[in-house]
Model the fold of this input.
Amino acid sequence: MHTASFSEQLSPIEWGPLLNSTFSSVLAPFATRKIAILVDENTHDHCLEFLITGFDALAEAEVIMLPAGEENKVLEVCFQVWETLTEAGFGRHDLLINLGGGMVTDLGGFVASVYKRGLAFINVPTSLLGMIDAAVGGKTGIDFAGFKNQIGTFAAAQVTYIDTGFLHTLPSQEWTNGFAELLKHALISDVQLWQDLSYIQDVQKELQLETIQQGVQIKAEIVAQDLTEKGLRKILNFGHTIGHALESYYLNTATPLSHGHAVALGLLLESKLSVEQATLSKQEFLSIETRIKSICALQIPSDAEGLWALMQQDKKNDNGEVRICLLPRIGSCLFDQKLAFEVFEKVISGYCS
Ligand code: GLY
Done:
């Protein structure tokens, strides 16, 4: 695997096989400290052994296992992790390693960032979505009161290690989830990447390492300019205002939407809004619609009011007004655009089942 590294403003990202990385030397100062590894049921079964057997420093690590699934990215689960850390006597100078997808790195980063006012943590994302988005950029968070990432912090991992070897442990649906975030990165900033991605039929078989790196680099470059989302970073939320509302809408129902599926639908609907309210052409929109329909089912409820209520909790809103991101064209993105309910309702009604 080609190994490269680049830094963002706060947290370094390192590419390539973990065994050839700086991981051992980053662990070295913790030799006389306590180390915990946070996993979920999936990474416990498929990734943990590799980590523990590959690195002597982790032989005695405390393993903390979370139940898998977004519905567990909640405060009650944080309590359990804090309890375990407290009972095991973890102090501020010890270390937490988050080994997993977005749920593990979001929750683990949050838990660490407030435990004794800040426990060092390392992210080892194991899913495509984690590598391309969640584990990069210093956002941590949990869901609360049915709203996505309602509670969280900006906190930098010591290092984020992206070893795409972990992707071989992923079921195919997980590839689609990460692919949705990659499509987002292309739509907001790179028309050539968008065209390259439009040829991919089987994400698991055809997605190249270089393309994943491109996706991560786009995110890292945006974050480096606006770490705490005062402005530009908001464009990384394209597709997420409606996507998060859809994900919350179906959370704890018989037909939950994965984050990637919800984001893919959000990209579609916010692109349609970009035709209505910005200058995205119908032809460009059709290419987006075709791509999204090829990767997921259009599970969109006919409850514009219900979705709108959820969107009113979005973190990008201002003064009670819903603000979204819009595409003037593929490869460019505007943020802080006001959205009126009537326009949203019209777009939703064209798609709902
Ligand atoms: N996932 C959007 C961001 O990190 O800003």
